[in-house]
Each structure stands twice: as structure tokens, then as C-alpha cells.
Task: inverse folding
């Protein structure tokens, strides 16, 4: 067994590998860029080596710097995590030339499966179902248009070396191909150093199912069941679970057999994942197709660990050291249900725009990296948090926007989803925008609960964007009672402190609360409140200084994140942020005399909604534009975003040039109407 390994990665996956290595008694070496000098993975490792500037192309993607760090520290092996160099065969060969072990599959398998074009050819030869499409190289946009027309719309354009949802564009028409082909090439080149693109038929209403495989160097190759990853946004996974609510025992066996056949065709060992697209309209599960094989550990591996009890990182290390797997296919079971949600630095209330900045508050539901494979809890349910950030740290524009992974396990699927809601209510993040509310809303959605999933779920269920999870009238009454009770408690305390000599002035029990466009009259009592004539029995434990309160009422238990600005209380629970205003009832009538300030009209400006890089301007000064026309493309967190005109007019002035960095809310150009 190795005595020291180097982790050629950052963030939560570096912390994940260090956690298992530490338990195995193996010393660890972290590498870090300028942006990560104070990151948790650097603090967790036994040693750390600086490898360059913040951009990944100058640090984490430079194989020579990783190898030099191995030489400097005496690391005997390298675990690549996922992303960066994890699927680069030339990196593995360079390590082998130096006598350094690679904790992953052989370079031949990486090369075969890393090229999405070649991998489809190999899959066909191995008897694996593949999606219809064109797997040759595509010369230019005109060639792409021709091929897409022959395949038949809709089609998916994909970067050959792509992964993680990057370098992918769905095209419903020739116009979509012309607009998206070059962007797909750019994303492939920027993220993976390869601008080749292939096109395949898009399966409508598809489910995304993947099979975890694990093999040793002695010829054993097993599958560890499936994960369902159908809840995606822009081809980026948001929710993963195991087992799939769709897959039967028979389907699992058929999918697993094809995954193993593909792995054996390329001499695979270590952990890997065969991704399949499944026709969700076919209940038989016969129509499943090979998408790609990821020759590395997957982001969503914790759900497999939770239901099988197999530590995938440990097994990867043992396999790399030449050990045999200590179990057989018959030993792999399915114990309960696990769900993982990805907590991203993005603002779902602003169309999921990427968000960066300092984490002024970061308190996960349970301590990170505690409780083993399933996290903390008991036989009724557990919570696991995998992260690579800390309070006071910064979410950078240079890397992936994921803040943390929240994993829950329970004996049943509903139990795991319920535990997600509870844990998300207690996940406290301040600073950059985040998607905690959205994740909670997904867990509560009736369609998610029914298991009727597809990769179009988010687009279909939130066509107008996200405005918070629905809240029943009963819950709104509980929120109104809590807001009134908090303001009452605050005033009582304030008056008792400021009026100590004469005793606290009387604070009213009658309040008016505005929330969700409604007005509620609240009368507070002992252990209850009357809200618009409805008796709400319950309790809220908030007192000044608390950031998370617990409330009961209307047969619900709520964890509520609390913040206040004057008489406005922001209460967040169960996937909805309630912006409330609270006044004593005797003052509420005076609000009708207050003037409402109208916001300025900014529609004549094209404003950058986030920090990023201006990749391309699609217009010039003096040109006419139509409402909805593409004006500029911004790259942020390795993804391209197209900005469009809010109204028709003429471009009066361009203030920023291509290749320049943009701040959030910076004006790019002005349109004269």
C-alpha cells in the first residue's frame, strides 16, 4: 500500500479523497493555485504545494507542475479526482514514465472513452446500444447544419472531449445549429483543449441513468447498481439518487451487463461510470442507449456509497496498489435510498445566473466530512455534507460554482426527500447567491415525488423561472404569526434594555404582516396566535441573535432562516424566501399615505448580470437591433451565457470590448429607442 499520495485537484473532491486516505493511514499532498491558498483542502492535507496562478490552464491543468510536486514531496501515487487531468491519457503516461502510480484506469481505457466519437464506435463493437447520430468529425457550421438536417431535429451538439454538462447545445432548428455550433466548439476548447464536435439525435423526455462500475487489475469487473441523474439544468446535474425510481431489477441487470461488456472491451479497472439515456416513455426500459463512459470518480458517487456501503475512493486506492476486490457481484445490494443535491453559487431568482463572492456565513446542516459514508444520523435517516469551502472563503469565477453536496439516506425514497427538505432549511449561506430554496422546492414537487422524471423536468416545470416553492395558506399563516412574534420579542427586549429605570413600555399584541402580496392581521397569545380569524397553535423559539429558528403550527415543523432590516423580516423555509413587513395594527393604516418610489428604466442598457469575460459582441455601434436579438456572449464559471436585447432600437454606444473582464451590473452597451 502507498504511504503518500498527491491529490491533483481542489475543493470538495480533494477533501473527499484526503478523508479516506487519512482513515487508511496514508499521508496526503495537496496542490493549490493562488486562488486556493487558504482553501480547506490545503489545510486538511499533510503537505501542500503551490502550482501557479488562479486560471486552471496555468495551474491544475499543467501536468508538469503536478509531477514536479510529486518529486518534491515523494508522493508515490496521484489521485486526480474529477475534471482537470482526470481523463487525460497523456498525464497517466507521464506519471508512469516517472514511476508514479495513477489512481484510476489505464491510459488505453481513458483514451478510448475520453474521445466521445471513438467511444461510440467501440460501444457499437461491444454490443452496447448507442444513440443514432453522426460520430465523425464535423468541419464547420455548414457541415453541422447538413448533418443535423439528415439526422432530424431535435439534435444534441456535443464536444468530443466534453463532460460535466459543458460543451453541449440542444438544437431544435437550423437557426439553433448556426447559433450554437461555434459556441459548443469554444466551450470544448476552453474547458478540455479539444474543439471537435459531434451530433446525435436528441431523445425527447429522456431519463439519465448511469451505472457505476468497479474493477481490479486481476480481471474482476463489477457494477454497483445505478444512479438516476435526470434532474438537470443546462445539461448540468442538479439532483442524483440511487436507486432509480424507474429501474427494475431486470433493467438493472441488463444495463449492468452492457456496462461491464464495454469496460471489458477496453481492459478497464478502477472506478468508472457508464452513462445511459433512457426513453422514459417506454415502461419496459428496453430503449436505453450509451451516452459516454466517464473514466473517473463521479461527483454523485456518494449516493452509491450510501446504498452499497462501498467506499469508492478506498477501492480506487487499493486497486491502484494492485489489490484484488474483496467482494463479488452477489455481495452488492441496495440498502435504502439516497439523494444528493448540488448546492451551487447561482441565483435561481435571477434565472440561475452564476454568483461569486465571499462566504460571509457558511454553516452546513451537519459538520462536513463527519459520520462516514452515510454521514450523521441513525437507522431512520442520515445527512452527509461534502464540501471544500469555509466561512470567510471566496467562491471564485475561475472554477466550478458548486459550494457543497448534500446527501441524505433513509430506508425509503420519500424519507430521503423529507430529510433533504429539513437539512436544506438548516443550511445557512450568506454572501453569493445560492440555490438552496430551489433544491428544497424540487424535493417537495409532486412530480419529483411521483418519480416521473426526465432531463426536461426543470424546463417543463419552471418555464417562467423560479419564484420560490409554493406555500399553502396554512403555512403563510404560520409565517405571519412567526414574523409578528419575532417583532414583538425584539421590541420587548429593546424596550426592556433602553427603559430599565421605569420598566419596559407596553408592546402591542395586535400586528399587521404583509407577505406574498397579502395582508394578515395577527393577534398574539400564549402558545398560539389568531391570524385573520384562524387559530394557529404552536411555538417559535426565536430570540434576538438567532439566525435559524424552529417553529411549529398547522401540523408543520419548520426550520426558518431569519434576517431583519428595520421592520422587514426575511424568513426562509421550505424553499421559499418570505419578504415580510411587520407593523403594529394601530400604525398599519398609515402606510396608504406613503409614496411608492418607481425604479429607473434600465431597458435601454445591456447590463452584465454577473462578473465574467466578454467573449463576443454580436453587433456594432449604429446597428439596428430587435427585441430578443443576441447582443453579447459572456463566459463565467466555464459556461457561456448569451445576453439579448430587451427592446428594439439602435446601438448608440459600446462601452466594453471583446476579451475584457466585466463586473456585475456593468453596462456593456446603450440602445437608443
Result:
Amino acid at each position: 500500500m502507498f504511504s503518500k499520495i498527491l491529490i491533483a485537484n481542489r475543493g470538495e473532491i480533494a477533501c473527499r479523497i484526503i478523508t479516506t486516505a487519512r482513515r487508511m493511514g496514508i499521508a496526503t499532498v495537496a496542490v493549490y493555485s493562488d486562488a486556493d491558498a487558504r482553501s480547506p483542502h490545503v489545510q486538511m492535507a499533510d503537505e501542500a504545494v503551490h502550482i501557479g496562478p488562479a486560471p486552471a490552464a496555468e495551474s491544475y491543468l499543467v501536468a508538469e507542475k503536478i509531477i514536479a510536486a510529486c518529486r518534491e514531496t515523494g508522493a508515490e501515487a496521484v489521485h486526480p479526482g474529477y475534471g482537470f487531468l482526470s481523463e487525460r491519457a497523456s498525464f497517466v503516461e507521464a506519471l508512469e514514465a516517472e514511476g508514479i502510480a495513477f489512481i484510476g484506469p489505464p491510459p488505453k481505457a481513458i483514451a478510448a472513452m475520453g474521445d466521445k466519437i471513438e467511444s461510440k464506435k467501440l460501444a457499437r463493437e461491444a454490443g452496447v446500444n448507442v444513440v443514432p447520430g453522426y460520430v465523425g468529425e464535423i468541419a464547420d457550421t455548414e457541415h453541422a447544419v447538413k448533418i443535423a438536417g439528415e439526422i432530424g431535429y431535435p439534435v444534441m451538439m456535443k464536444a468530443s472531449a466534453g463532460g460535466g454538462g459543458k460543451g453541449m447545445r440542444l438544437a431544435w432548428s437550423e437557426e439553433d445549429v448556426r447559433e450554437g455550433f461555434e459556441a459548443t466548439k469554444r466551450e470544448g476548447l476552453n474547458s478540455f483543449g479539444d474543439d471537435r464536435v459531434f451530433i446525435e439525435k436528441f431523445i425527447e423526455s429522456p431519463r439519465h441513468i448511469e451505472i457505476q462500475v468497479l474493477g481490479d487489475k486481476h480481471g474482476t469487473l463489477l457494477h454497483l447498481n445505478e444512479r438516476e441523474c435526470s434532474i438537470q439544468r443546462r445539461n448540468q446535474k442538479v439532483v442524483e439518487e440511487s436507486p432509480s425510481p424507474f429501474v427494475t431489477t431486470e433493467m438493472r441487470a441488463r444495463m449492468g451487463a452492457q456496462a461491464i461488456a464495454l469496460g471489458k472491451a477496453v481492459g478497464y479497472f478502477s472506478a468508472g461510470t457508464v452513462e445511459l439515456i433512457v426513453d422514459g416513455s417506454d415502461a419496459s426500459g428496453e430503449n436505453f442507449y450509451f451516452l459516454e463512459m466517464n473514466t473517473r470518480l463521479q461527483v454523485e458517487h456518494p449516493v452509491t456509497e450510501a446504498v452499497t456501503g462501498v467506499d469508492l475512493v478506498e477501492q480506487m486506492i487499493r486497486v491502484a496498489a494492485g489489490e484484488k476486490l474483496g467482494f463479488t457481484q452477489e455481495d452488492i445490494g441496495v440498502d435504502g435510498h439516497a439523494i444528493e443535491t448540488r448546492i451551487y453559487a447561482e441565483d435561481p431568482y435571477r434565472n440561475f445566473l452564476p454568483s461569486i463572492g465571499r462566504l460571509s456565513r457558511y454553516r452546513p446542516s451537519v459538520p462536513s466530512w463527519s459520520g462516514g459514508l452515510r454521514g450523521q444520523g441513525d437507522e431512520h435517516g442520515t445527512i452527509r455534507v461534502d464540501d471544500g469551502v469555509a466561512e470567510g472563503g471566496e467562491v471564485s469565477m475561475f472554477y466550478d460554482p458548486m459550494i457543497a453536496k448534500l446527501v441524505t439516506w433513509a430506508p425509503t425514497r420519500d424519507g430521503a426527500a423529507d430529510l433533504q427538505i429539513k437539512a436544506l432549511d438548516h443550511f445557512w449561506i450568506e454572501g453569493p447567491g445560492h440555490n438552496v430554496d430551489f433544491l428544497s422546492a424540487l424535493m417537495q414537487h409532486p412530480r419529483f415525488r411521483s418519480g416521473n422524471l426526465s432531463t426536461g423536468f426543470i424546463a417543463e416545470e419552471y418555464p417562467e423561472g423560479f419564484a420560490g416553492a409554493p406555500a399553502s395558506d396554512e403555512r403563510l399563516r404560520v409565517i405571519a404569526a412567526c414574523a409578528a412574534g419575532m417583532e414583538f420579542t425584539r421590541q420587548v427586549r429593546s424596550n426592556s434594555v433602553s427603559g430599565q429605570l421605569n420598566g419596559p413600555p407596553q408592546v402591542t399584541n395586535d400586528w399587521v404582516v404583509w407577505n406574498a402580496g397579502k395582508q394578515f392581521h395577527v393577534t398574539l397569545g400564549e402558545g398560539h396566535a389568531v391570524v385573520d380569524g384562524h387559530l394557529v397553535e404552536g411555538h417559535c423559539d426565536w430570540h434576538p441573535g438567532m439566525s435559524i429558528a424552529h417553529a411549529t403550527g398547522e401540523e408543520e415543523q419548520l426550520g426558518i432562516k431569519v434576517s431583519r432590516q428595520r421592520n422587514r423580516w426575511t424568513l426562509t423555509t421550505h424553499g421559499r424566501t418570505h419578504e415580510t413587513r411587520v407593523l403594529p395594527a394601530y400604525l398599519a393604516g398609515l402606510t396608504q399615505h406613503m409614496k411608492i418610489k418607481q425604479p429607473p428604466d434600465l431597458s435601454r442598457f445591456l447590463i452584465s448580470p454577473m462578473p465574467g469575460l466578454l467573449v463576443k459582441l454580436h453587433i456594432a455601434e449604429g446597428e439596428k437591433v430587435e427585441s430578443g436579438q443576441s447582443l453579447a456572449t459572456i463566459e463565467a464559471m466555464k459556461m457561456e451565457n448569451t445576453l439579448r436585447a430587451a427592446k428594439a432600437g439602435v446601438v448608440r454606444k459600446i462601452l466594453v470590448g471583446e476579451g475584457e473582464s466585466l463586473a456585475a451590473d456593468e453596462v456593456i452597451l446603450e440602445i437608443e429607442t
